[in-house]
Amino acid sequence: MQRNTKKQNNKLTNEDIKRYTLSFWKFFVGLIILGFLFLISIGLGLFGELPSFRDLENPKSNLSSEIISADGAVLGTYYIQNRSNVTYKELSPALIKALIATEDIRFNSHSGIDFKRTFTIIFYNLIGKKQGASTITQQLALNLFQEEGRARSFSKRFIQKLQEWIIAVRLEQNYTKEEILTMYLNTVDFGAYNTYGIKSAARTYFNTTPGELNPGQAAVLVGMLKGPGIYSPIRYPKNSINRRNTVLDNMRKSGFLTAAEAASFKEKPLGLTFRPNVYGDGIAPYLRAVLKTDIKNIFNQLSITKADGTPYDLDRDGLKIYTTIDSRMQLYAEEAQKTMMKELQVTFNNQYKGRDPFKGLEVLLDRAVKQSDRYRWLKNADQSDEEIKKNFNSPTKMSIFSWKGELDTTMTPMDSIKYNKLMLRNAMMSMEPQTGYVKAWVGGINFTHYKYDQVKMGARQPGSTAKPFTYAVAIDNGYSPCFKVPNAPINVDGWAPKSESTVAGPITLKTALAHSQNWATADVIQRVGAQNVANLIKNMGITTDVPAYPSIALGTFDASVYDMVGAYSTFVNHGVWTQPIYLLRIEDKNGALIYEHTKKVKVVMNDQSAYVMVDMLKGVVEKGSGQRVRWKYKLMNPIGGKTGTSQSNSDAWFIGVTPQLVSGVWTGAEERAIHFSTTALGQGANAALPMFALFMQKVYADKELKYSQGDFELPPGGLQRELDCSKYQYDYPSEDERKIDDRLDF
Length: 746
Hints:
The chain is an alpha+beta fold. GO terms for molecular function: penicillin binding; peptidoglycan glycosyltransferase activity; serine-type D-Ala-D-Ala carboxypeptidase activity.
C-alpha cells in the first residue's frame, strides 16, 4: 500500500510535463536568440572589425610584384612574401580536383558553411578523433582577414570561427565558386623558402606553372596544406609521399581518378625540380635591382600613388612591371659571359704565378679593409687596431664565388679581400637601335657576391671605343672616309699620345679607325676641335663628365656600358639617338595602367654621315682590330664594331653593331690598378669581343628571334657619299696596311 502511494507521488503529472516542456523550449529558444544576438554582435564588429563589402572586393594580401619580359616570362619578383596571383584558367583541373576532394568535397553545393560536415566533425572530436571542419571558403576567410592567424585560446578561436562563418557567407554572396577557389590558392602558405600561393609553390617545387601540374604534383602541393612543415617534400619526403598518396586516394574515392590512375601516380617518386626563391637567383638580377630603384624614383617624381593617396609598395602591392628584356636573349648573354669569363679568369690568374699581385698596392688593401662591413662591426665593438688586424688575419669559414660554383672554404678575411680584388668583373647590354629596347642586361658576374651594377651604375674609361666620336665629327663636317691624314708623332696642345703597331702614313680615316691608330686620331681631333667632339659625345647620350681635352679622342673620360651602347645605336639609326629603354609600363594588381614610358629621341647627326660611320665600323671587323669576329667565331654577315683598351689595360671593351642589335661588353677588375700585364691579353679583342660573338651566335641560331643577318639599311634618300677609296685620285692603303691583324688594340 505504501509502495503504491510512493509510485503515485513520484509520477509526473501532465501539468509537470507541460511546465518542463515549456521551460525546455524557453531555454532552447533563448539559446537560439542569444546565439543569434551573439552572431549579430560579431557581424556588427563588437568582437573585432569585420571586412566591409569594399574589403571583400579588394582583399588585402602581400602580393609580390612581377618583372615580366617582352616574351612573357617572369624574370623575377619583388616581395615580402613571394606570392603572385593566377586566374582560374591558369589552374590545372587536377589541382582543383585534388583540392576539393581533400579539403571540401561538398564545396560546390554549400554556401560557405557545410553544416553536415560541421556536426559530423563535432561528433568525431567528442570521441577523440580530431578533424578540421572548415570549408575552403572559411579557410579563405581566415587567410585574408585574420592577420594574427589562427587563435590558440579556445575563447578567441570560438569567436574567430564565428567571424569566419560570417565572412565565408559574404564571400559566397560576392564571388563565384571559381573565384573563391582561385583566391584560396593564391593566398595559402606553403611554408619554407618564402613560398606563398600556388604559383610560387609550383615554381619552387616543380619548376612549372599551376596550369601544368599533373595529379601527382597537385597531390603533393595540396597535401602540404594540412601542414607545410611536416609534409614538406624537401625536409620530410616520406611524410610527403604518404600524404600525397592520401590525396590521390581522396581523388579516387571522389571519382576524379580511376583506381588504376591513382595506383600509377602512387608508385612514382615525388619528381621534384626544386628551385628555392632567392632574390639574386634567376636571370637578369642586376637589371631587377636597377629597375626597383628606378621605379621608386619614378613614383616619387611623378607623385604616382594609389586611389586613396597612399604610396605603392613594390614588395606588397602585386604590380605587373613590363620590360623590354627578352628572356631568351638574356639567358644567351649570361651563358656567353660564363663561357668567356671562365677561361679569361684562368688566364688572368696565371699571369701572377710566382709574384705578389699586391706588391705596391698596400694602400689599396688598407682602404678595402676599412670599407668592409667586418671592419665597421669590429670598430663598433670598440676593438683596437691591433685586434682588428688580428681578426682580418685569422682563418674563418666563408663562401666565395668561383666560376666552378659556390665554394665553402676557410680563409682569412684579408685573403678573401685579395681573392675578390683579383676576380675580373664583366658587363654587357644589347639593344635594338631603332626602338631603343634593351633586350639583354648583364650587370656583373654574380649578384649574390658582387651587387654593383656595371651596365648603368658603373663608369670606366672606354679607350678606343671613343674614337668613332672624333671621326663622326669629321665625317659630319664634310670629311670623306677616304681622306688621308699623317700617322706620325704629334703634339696637340701639350698632349703627345703614344702609338704601337703603327701603320705607316699617310692613311685614310677608314684605315685609321679600322686599325685604331692613335696618332691619326689625334690629328683628326686637332682638325675638328676637342670641344666639338665633346659636344657630340654629350649629344649622343653620354651622361658622365666629358672635358673638352684632345685626349678624349682616345677615350680618357669615363662612360657606362648603357650610355656607350646608346651612343653607338645612333650610327645604326641614321643619326637619331634613342634613349635605351628597359621599362615599358607598370600595371596594378587589377591590370590598370599606372605608368607608361615616354620615348626620348633626338637627331644628332646627318643620316649620310651616320651611314658612313657604320661602313667604317664594318671595316674594323673586316680588316682591323675586330677581325676575330670573322676568323674565330665565323660570323660572316654584315657586322661592325670597335675594340677598346684603356690605359694600363685596366678596361677591355667591344661594341658591336648589326642592323637590328647594338651590344656593348666591358671587362676589368674592380680596381683599375689591378689589370692584365700585357695588351695582347687585356685588349678588347681578347677580353670583351668573345662575349659579343658568342652572344650573337646564339641569337642567330634561335630562329624564333628573327634577327636579320642582312646588310645595314641605306639612308632614306639613298647614299650620296662615295665610300670606294679606289675612285679617289690617290692610292688606297698598301697591302701591308690591310694585313694588320687584331693582335693589338689601343
